[in-house]
Automatic annotation (TrEMBL):
GO terms for cellular component: cytoplasm; nucleus
Top-level division of the source organism's lineage: Eukaryota
GO biological process, one term: positive regulation of macroautophagy
A GO molecular-function descriptor: L-leucine binding
Catalyzed chemical reaction(s): a hydroperoxide + L-cysteinyl-[protein] = S-hydroxy-L-cysteinyl-[protein] + an alcohol
Keyword Secreted tagged: no
Organism: Sinocyclocheilus grahami (Dianchi golden-line fish)
Subcellular locations according to the entry: Cytoplasm
Protein's recorded name: Sestrin-3-like
InterPro entries given in the database record: AhpD-like (IPR029032), Sestrin (IPR006730)
Keyword line: Cytoplasm, Oxidoreductase
Primary localization: cytoplasm
Gene3D superfamilies for the chain: AhpD-like (1.20.1290.10)
Protein family according to the UniProt entry: Belongs to the sestrin family.
Length: 406
């Protein structure tokens, strides 16, 4: 077993970060030579400027992550690639799938954000009336969306087979892999949004201070599209009314949620003894969805290498605890370390953020470290997000592998 997995941070055996490949996925990257910046604050500022230029607003997620600029760079690169770069799914499908994923956790912030982008890339406004208004191909994703969001260990070959069966509404394998990556990305991002408080009191898409509407991007003006807020006012009012829609419109079976995996029989654990990110998941997803494996692996590596003011053992315990509550254990890790290093309050916080990131149902326990800094809380939330992302991907990719070899 590679050393990285023995430490509980599943990483691919690739030693390079593929920055040369990944850089091209970020617009305007040639204008921001990060390697020449000597100050972390300058780098964070430029990353935020990039996010502002690309989206027409500086969202609170980017603001939170800016305390760890090297991670923010990797996150933005991956997210931009998934949502806007080469892939089999049309852009409006991608944003609608993101809406479906965020709605499982009642994340108004992300539902609102992707509703705006869905319309901006040409999506049909009628689809935003609810899941029943969407095409049947998208509705067919609802079950695997539900399972991955709440009980990913239930993901099975039969779920993959049902989506790939022959017929007019079937999915191709490449389309399904991109959809699964997008679902897992948004589910885990809901955890970060919840842990950072970005979803509290959200009623509409955040605006730039000068009044740029949600559907208007600064890069539109840069590209010669001078239609400003006044010309788009009627459409904007219609859009904003839709953005305030209840996320439950996109949810079926709302009672389905996380169940305590630890209360199951011990035999259900260690299900990934013969399936890991570094040995199996990385190569499979990279083969079926070009370059995404490198981008995801860079995220895992980056969060693992971020400076942590506490013991490295604590960081490893956080990662392994999250995988444990999702049913994944490692033979070479002493789980007594989890109870020794993670005090009860921290475990409650991690579990709430990882498993119950729904601000409409779950009161968030405060992070109980006496003198915790804002950047340290963000660091913990990043660990939760990335560990959860990897766990979901492992379950989904294992099911796809089982389908392919059946």
């Amino acid at each position: 077993r590679p050393k990285a997995q023995a430490q509980g941070l599943g990483l691919s055996p690739q030693h390079q970060s593929n920055k040369d490949i990944g850089t091209m996925y970020l617009p305007f990257s040639h204008r921001f030579p990060f390697h020449k910046l000597s100050k972390i604050k300058d780098r964070a500022s430029l990353l935020c400027m990039k996010a502002l230029a690309n989206r027409g607003r500086l969202d609170s997620v980017s603001q939170q992550m800016a305390s760890h600029p090297q991670y923010l760079e990797s996150f933005l690169r991956t997210q931009h690639y998934i949502l806007y770069m080469d892939g089999p799914l049309p852009l409006h499908y991608r944003h609608y799938i993101a809406i479906m994923a965020a709605a499982r956790h009642h994340c108004r912030y992300l539902v609102s954000l992707h509703s705006a982008q869905f319309l901006r890339v040409g999506g049909d406004p009628l689809w935003l009336q609810g899941l029943e208004a969407a095409p049947s191909r998208l509705r067919h994703l609802d079950h695997i969306n539900k399972v991955l969001a709440h009980q990913p260990w239930l993901t099975a070959r039969s779920h993959i087979q049902a989506l790939l069966k022959t017929g007019e509404q079937c999915w191709s394998l490449a389309e399904l892999v991109q959809a699964v990556v997008l679902l897992a990305h948004c589910h885990s991002l809901c955890s970060f949004v919840f842990g950072s408080g970005s979803d509290s009191d959200t009623t509409s898409t955040p605006r730039v201070h000068h009044g740029t509407p949600p559907g208007y991007c600064l890069c539109d003006a840069a590209n010669g599209n001078t239609a400003g807020p006044t010309e788009k006012a009627p459409r904007r009012r219609e859009d904003e009314a839709m953005f305030s829609a209840d996320p439950s419109r996109f949810v079926t079976d709302p009672e389905f949620g996380y169940q305590e995996f630890a209360r199951r029989e011990e035999d259900h654990f260690q299900v990934f003894r013969d399936y890991s990110w570094e040995d199996h998941g990385f190569s499979l997803v990279n083969r079926l969805y070009s370059d995404i494996g490198h981008l995801l692996d860079e995220r895992f590596r980056t969060v693992a290498s971020l400076p942590f003011p506490h013991s490295p053992d604590l960081k490893r315990a956080i990662w392994n605890y999250i995988h444990c509550i999702y049913g994944i254990r490692y033979d070479d890790y002493d789980y007594g370390e989890v109870n020794r290093l993670l005090e009860r309050g921290l475990k409650l916080y991690i579990k709430a953020v990882a498993c119950y990131p729904d601000s409409s149902k779950t009161p968030l326990c405060p992070l109980s470290w006496a003198s915790v800094k804002a950047s340290e809380k963000v660091h913990v939330n990043l660990l939760v997000m990335e560990a959860r992302l990897q766990a979901e991907l492992l379950y989904a990719l294992r099911a796809i592998t089982q389908y392919m070899i059946a």
